[in-house]
Amino acid sequence: MNIDLLVTDCALLPVPGREPLIECGYVAVGAGRILETGSMDACPAAAAAIIDGQGQLAMPGLVNGHCHAPMVLFRGLADDLDLATWLHDHIFPAEARRVDAEMVYWCARLAAAEMLLSGTTTVADGYFFEDEVARACVETGLRCVAAQGVLDFPAPGVGDPARNIEAAARFIERWQGRDPLITPAIFTHAPYTCGRRTLRRAKELARTCGVPLFVHVAETRNEREQIAEPLAPSPIGHLAALDLLDRDTVCVHCVWADDRDLDLLAAHDAAVVTCPQSNAKLASGRAPLTAMLDRGLRVALGTDSAASNNSLDLFREMDFAAKLHKVRPSDPTAVPARQLLRLATWGGAAALGLESGHGTLVPGAPADLILIDRNQPRLQPWHGPDLLVYSGPAACVRSVIVNGRLIVHERRLLTIDLRETCAQVRRLALE
Amino acid sequence: MNIDLLVTDCALLPVPGREPLIECGYVAVGAGRILETGSMDACPAAAAAIIDGQGQLAMPGLVNGHCHAPMVLFRGLADDLDLATWLHDHIFPAEARRVDAEMVYWCARLAAAEMLLSGTTTVADGYFFEDEVARACVETGLRCVAAQGVLDFPAPGVGDPARNIEAAARFIERWQGRDPLITPAIFTHAPYTCGRRTLRRAKELARTCGVPLFVHVAETRNEREQIAEPLAPSPIGHLAALDLLDRDTVCVHCVWADDRDLDLLAAHDAAVVTCPQSNAKLASGRAPLTAMLDRGLRVALGTDSAASNNSLDLFREMDFAAKLHKVRPSDPTAVPARQLLRLATWGGAAALGLESGHGTLVPGAPADLILIDRNQPRLQPWHGPDLLVYSGPAACVRSVIVNGRLIVHERRLLTIDLRETCAQVRRLALE
Question: pLDDT at position B231, please?
C-alpha cells in the first residue's frame, strides 16, 4: 500500500450523519483516494507525508450543491430587495456591464478560496465563461461540477442565443476527462429564460454526453404564474412535460413545489438542491425540505451565489436550514443535525450524480477531507457531531485535502496567492 | 489629551446602522473612553500605544442582550428537541447535577472567550452563582450586565427558595460600583417558575437598588396557557398586572406577544430581547420583531445560551434574524441589515439601560471596539457595512478593546490562558 499522505491521531467521522465516530484514528490516502481509515492501534508506520491530527476531527469535505462562484463580485452590492428587483435592477445590469473572462476567472478564484477555507471541497457551479471557473478551480484545488450557462438571451461569452447549446457542447468537449477535479455539465438558467426548444436541446446534449443538467426551477411564487399553461400547471410540471426530468437532472430551489411536483421529481428520480439562505434573504420562500426527504428525493444543500447569501460557508447553510425548518410549522425534531450532515456531504454528492462513496471517508472514495480544530472555544466541550451543524465551525477548519492533495494547512491556502486574488477582485469591483 | 491607545489607518463605522463610514481614519482612546475619531488627516501624533489598523474596520463591539454563559457546558448535549423536553429531561437534570461555583466560573470564562473572539464586548447574562460569572468576565475582560437568578425552587447556590431575593440583594451589594466592567442585575427566571410575591419583591429590590430586572416571558405557546387568569390573559399582561413593567425591566423572548402585549410593553417603555436562533432551534416560534420595531420598543438581540443555539456568535444572530423575518411573511425589505447593526450595538445597549453612547464610537462612549480584517475572502469586495450582517465575519475579528484595554490581538486572547480554560471545561463535561 503506497501511502501518499497519512493523517494520524485525529477523531474520525467517516460517514457524517451516521455513527460511529472514531475517537482516535488515522486516514491513509494514496493516488487521490482514501486507502483506509481506522483506530490508531492499526495505523500504518510509514507514509510519504504525515499530518499530526491531534485535537482535530477528520471528516469528508463539504459538497456545495449550487453556486455561481464569479458572483462574489456582487456580494453586498444590493441587499434587502426582492428577487425581481434584485435581479432586474441590480444583478442583470451589473452582469451585462461587468462579466467577462477575466472577471469570471479572478472572482471564481476568490470563491474557491472562500469555500476551501470554510471546509467545502466540491462545488456545483453554474455560470458563463465557465471555462474560467473550471480553470480557477483546478488552480485553487477545488473539485467542481462546472456547468456552462444557457440562456435564450445574449449572454456573457455567448452573444448569439442561437449558439447557446453549441457553446455548451464545446465546453463539455474541452473538459470531459481532462482533469480529475472537473466534471463538465450544462446549466439551463430557468424555464422563464429558456424556451422549450432550448430546454429540450440542452437535455438531449446532456444525455448524449452523459453529463448532468442543472436548472433553477420553482424559485418564486411569480414563476408559477409565468410558466402556467393548460398541460403544465407548474414549472416542474413544465420540465416533466418536456421530458427533462431524469436522474441526471438537478432541479435547483423547488421552493414552490407542491405535492404533485414532488411526486413528479420522485417518479423520475430527479435531484433537488435547496438553498435556504438565498431563498430566505430574497424572501422567495421556504422549500418543502421535510416532504422532499420523506419522499426519498436525492437532495443537496447549496449556498447559491455570494450575492444573495452573502457567504459561501456551507456549515452556516446547514445551521440555517435546521432552524428554519424547525420554527414553522413548529417541530424541533424536523431536519435534525445528522440529516443535514448527510445532505452536506455524501447525500449531496449523490444528488449531483457523483460517484458512490464521494462525501465519505470510506476506502476507495475520492480523498476529499477536512480537519477541524476541536480545541476552538465554540466546539467546547464536544458532546457529538451535531456541533458541526449548530456551532458554526467554518473558522475552525485547519486543513483541507482535495483529491489527495493538501490545499489548506494551518488555515492557510497553499495553492494560490490569495492576496493577489483579493487585490484583483477589488480592482474589478471598482471598475 | 492623554491618549492611551490609538488605532490608525482603519476604516471606521462609528454608529452602526447609520452613515457615514470613514474610509481611512483613527480612534483615540483614553481612560477607558473614546476620546475622538476622525479621518487620518487629523490623526494625533502621539499615544502611549498605537495599533496599525490598515486593512481593518473599527466598529463598536457587539452587545449580546441575553445569555446564560455557564451553559456552554451543555452545548450540544441535547439537540433537536422541544423546549419542554429539552429543559425538563436534559437541562434541568444536568444543572441539578453539575452546577456549582467551580463549573460556573470555568464555563463563564470559556463563554467570555468565545464572545470576545467573535466580536462581542458586552453581554447581559443571567444565571446562578452569578458572582463567578462576574469574576470570570472581569478576568477575561468582557463587560457584563450580570443578573443573579431567582427561582421559587431550590436553585444552585440558593438551596432555600425563601432566601432567593436576599441572595440577589447580597449579589447586588457585592458588585454595585465595584468594577467598571460589571453592572449587577436580577434575573427572575420566568412567570411559570417565580410566583407573584417573588416577582413583586424582586422588582422592588431592583427599583430600590436602581438595577435592571430580566425575565423570560412569552417564550412558548404553552406558557400562555399556564399563566392565563381572568385579570391577566397573557404572560406579559401578568407582569403588567404585578406592576413589573417599566424602563428598567427587560423582557426576554416575547415570541408569543400579541398586539395588546406589545402595547403594554410600549406604554411602560419596557425593553425586549429577541433570541431568534434559540427560539427557532427549540421551535418556540418567531417573535414579532417588525411589530416591536414599528412601535419603537427598545430591542436587543441575544444568543441565549450555547445549549440552545449552539454558539455565542452575535454576528450569526444578526444574519439569522434578518433572513428569518424576511422569509415569512414574504418581505425581503423586512429587518434590513442596518437595523440589525443598530440592535446588535447601541440599540441593544439602550435596551439594557446602559449609558447613552454605549455601542458607538462617539467621543465619551466606553472604549469598547473591535477591528475586523477586511482582507478576508468572505468580506471581498467591500460594497458596504451590510456585509457585516450577511457574510458571517466573526472569524475576521482581529482585535478587541474593552474599556480601553486590548483584550484580543491578532485573533489571540491576551487576558486568560484559553488552553487551561478549555481543559477545565472538558474535565467538567466528563464528570
Answer: 65
* Angstrom distance (rounded) from CA B133 to CA B139: 10
Closest CA to B40 of B13, B12, B8: B8
Mean pLDDT of A69-88: 92
Chain B hits for A419, CB-CB cut-off 8 Å, are 375
User: Which set of grid coordinates corresponds to residue A95?
Assistant: 452582469
Average pLDDT estimate for B315-321: 98
Query: Which secondary structure element, helix H or strand E, spans residue A88, and what is its range?
Result: none
With cell 469591483, the residue in question is A429
Measured CA distances, B123 to B39, B99, B140, B185, B274 (Å): 30, 20, 13, 12, 14
pTM above 0.95, yes or no: yes
Residue B137 to residue B416: CA distance in whole angstroms: 10
Interface of B with A in 365-404 (CB under 8 A): 375, 377-378, 380-384, 386-387, 390-392, 394-395
State how many domains chain B has. Answer: 2
B363/B370 Cα distance (integer angstroms):
16
pLDDT for A19 equals 79
Q: Let me know whether A205 and A338 are in one domain.
A: yes
Measured from the Cβ of residue B328, the count of other Cβ atoms closer than 10 Å reads: 16
Mean pLDDT, range A181-187, rounded to an integer: 98
Higher-confidence position of A113 and A20: A113
Cell 494520524 appears where? Answer: A8
Which residues are CB-contacts of A347 (< 8 A; sequence separation ≥ 6)? A17, A298, A299, A300, A359
- Strands (E) across A344-391 are located at 369-373
CB nearest to A75's CB, from B316, B327, B381: B381
Assigned domain for A427 exists: no
Q: Can you give the residue range of the structural domain that contains B51?
A: 5-60+360-411
Same domain, A23 and A141: no
DSSP string, B232-287: BSSHHHHHHHTT--STTEEEEE-TT--HHHHHHHHHHT-EEEE-HHHHHHTT----
State whether A143 and A248 are in the same domain: yes
